[in-house]
Amino acid sequence: QLRLVESGGGSVQPGGSLKLSCVTSESTDSDYHMAWFRQAPGKERGGIAEREGVATLDADGPTTYAQVVKCRFTISKDNARNTLYLQMESLKTEVTAVYYCTATRPVGPATPCARLTPHRWSVWGQGTQVTVSS
């Protein structure tokens, strides 16, 4: 079964940058859609249902971004390294959260909103904490 391991989280001041990484246990290439979600403080009890979509990368290449991060976050993948990335720029305090890498096999077309909902995704990593504060 596919396993996902995130890293790269940490503490940063507002306006700063971070790059998250997610190493997969096997090649995902064109076999999986990939995405980053986050779970804000205080929403942990809601489990996966309380995770908010940040950015998605379809198996065939198209990306989708949540409106609040568009133009500041970039999702990408290095297939040779089996690694998914999330480059985050101009960070704001409100993005403080645990960030999760997730994957799912393509099951058909989906709207951008559907891509950003957690119930669509089947494999999850353990998360990495991102804290933005002054």
Report helical residue fraction: under 10%
Through-space gap between termini: 40 Å
Biggest sheet record? 7 strands, mixed
In terms of quaternary structure, the protein is: single chain
**Radius of gyration of CA atoms, rounded to a whole number:** 14 Å
Helix and strand content put the structural class at mainly beta
* Total strands: 11
Please, what is the average pLDDT? 94
Instruction: Indicate the low-confidence ranges by residue numbers.
Output: none
The SSE string, one letter per element, is EEEEEEEEEHEE
The number of helices is 1
Shape: globular
Residue share in β-strands: 35-45%
Can you put this structure into words, describing what you see?
With about 130 residues, this protein is mainly beta. The protein has one helix at about 110-115, and strands at about 5, 10, 20-25, 35-40, 50-55, 65, 75-80, 85-90, 95-105, 125, 130. Strands 2, 4, 5, 6, 9, 10 and 11 form a seven-stranded mixed sheet that branches. It has a four-stranded antiparallel sheet with strand order 1-3-8-7, with no helix packed on it. Strand 5 and strand 6 form a beta hairpin. The model has no long low-confidence stretch (mean pLDDT about 95).
